[in-house]
Amino acid sequence: MVQPAPPSTASYTTIDGEHRHEVEIKRSRFITVLRRVETEEAARELVAGLRKEFHDARHHCSAFILGPDRRVQRSNDDGEPSGTAGIPMLEALAKRETAPGVTDLSDVAAVVVRYFGGILLGAGGLVRAYSDSVSQALSGARLIRREHLQLFSVPAGHAAAGRLENELRGAGVQVLGTDYLSNEARIQVALPDSPETVAGFRERLAALTGGGPGPVPSGSRWVDRG
What we know:
Blueprint: E1 11-15, E2 18-25, E3 28-36, H1 40-53, E4 59-66, E5 72-76, H2 86-94, E6 108-115, H3 122-140, E7 143-156, H4 158-170, E8 174-180, E9 185-192, H5 195-209, E10 216-224
């Protein structure tokens, strides 16, 4: 298992949907399929589907990384010499920089389908072929930033809710909307999941409301940032 530097669990990078790339090396065809997945079952379904689609290929090698902390990492050589396919593919995923010095790609499965062309590549050649196939496919895939948000409900009087909502938006806070109840309004906001951001928001809210009611936690969620 590859053990890169641990990423932040409040955000990470994945890919958008599915991407395919093909390259020929010494008459062998290497067809790489990348797909965004969130479970081991989904990753294995991708492998099973490609075995049916490319039923006459000799190898369907795979690797995947799952979770915000990238804790789940698996690879399979599928009949290639041990260590020449799955692990190089996994390393290509794990070590891919999504920003300068940042390696946080996750929720991605890679399958490389190989049609043998009759020329042996040798262990070193196979390692390079499988690693390069995944790296080249990643270069053409659209990356998406995933961010974990903390959700809060901000109580406010009916008369003050509109003004407070506008002030929060003006301060750069993501306002999801306002619920008007019989006795009060509740402004729904989403904040990046970091103690510093939440503490700063509490301070700003207190200043805007003159020490009024503080925000009430209302859950969390992951969002795509494009």
